[in-house]
Amino acid sequence: MQVFRIEISSWTASFRYPNMISGFQPTLRVPPISTICGLVSAAAGRLVTPKEFEFAYSFRYDCTAVDLETIYQFGLQGKPSLRNVTSNIMRREFLAMNRLLLYLNNRELAMAFNKPYFPLLLGRSGDLATVDSISQIELQAVKELNLAGTVVPFLGYRVASPIQALPTHFSNDFPRRNLGTQPFYILDWQHRGNYPLHHRGWHDTEHEIDLFWYDREVLPVYE
Q: How confident is the model over 201-218, as pLDDT tens digits?
């Protein structure tokens, strides 16, 4: 199968656990699908949902670290103002020296990464990312996958890895609504398992990685 491979890198990345607002903010070890849709939307300059394209990805990082961050909290009573704002210190985990291999079957969306409409982010507004290369390649079909650095839907598969409920994308209204939330296996690239996933997928011979391919069959789109 011929696809477009976009190689993206960043110095820092952070993917927040949903609904976690404690004093310590950990990061997921792999970007969720909503981050992939956000990257494609930023490049295209419009909202792009999973119904428009098929994709696969693999993500890796060199190390993790923790930073101290000042946050500002607004009181719940009345309208926000400087009188009811307090500051606080939060410990936030992040990933360092990151690399994302993104595979798309849509030429128009892939070419948008040549000149992204909006800045590309791997997490927060400070996690700026760079497109290193865009190439058209041939993937080899495989019947079993040994995966790392990606997410896999929980339903229909059995994988020895953490599970987290994550949205696939967000709405374009305000406030934004998370859509397509479902459980996913989080496959850290550093913990490659010896469990072949019995699912038809693809192999990138240049980078020697297997890819879980997301299409409408394995990723129903929720509006």
A: 899 999 999 999 998 887
CATH assignment of the domain containing 17: 3.30.70
Write down the pTM of the prediction: 0.90
Q: Does residue 73 lie within any of the structural domains?
A: yes
Q: What DSSP line would sit under 88-148, residue for residue? A: EEEEEEEEEEEEEEEEES-HHHHHGGGS-SS--BSSSTT-BEEEEEEEEEEPEEESSB---
* Phi, psi values for residue 189, rounded to 5°: -65, -25
- Count Cβ atoms within 10 A of the Cβ of residue 17 and give its class: 0-12 exposed, 13-18 middle, 19 or more buried: middle
CA distances from 134 to 67, 114, 130 (A): 32, 8, 12
The residue segments making up the domain with residue 114 are 2-211
Q: Tell which phi-psi region holds residue 125, choosing left (phi > 0), alpha (psi between -120 and 50) or beta.
A: alpha
Residue 13 forms part of a structural domain: yes
Q: Determine the Cα–Cα distance for residues 139 and 157; give it in Å rounded to an integer.
A: 23
Q: What is the DSSP string of 155-214?
A: TT---SS-EEEE-SEE-SSSS--EES-EEEEEE-GGG--S--B-S-EEEETTTTEEEPPB
Tens of pLDDT, residues 120-164: 999 988 999 999 999 999 999 998 888 899 999 998 888 888 999
Q: How many domains does the chain have?
A: 1
Q: Which amino acid is located at 141 in the chain?
A: A
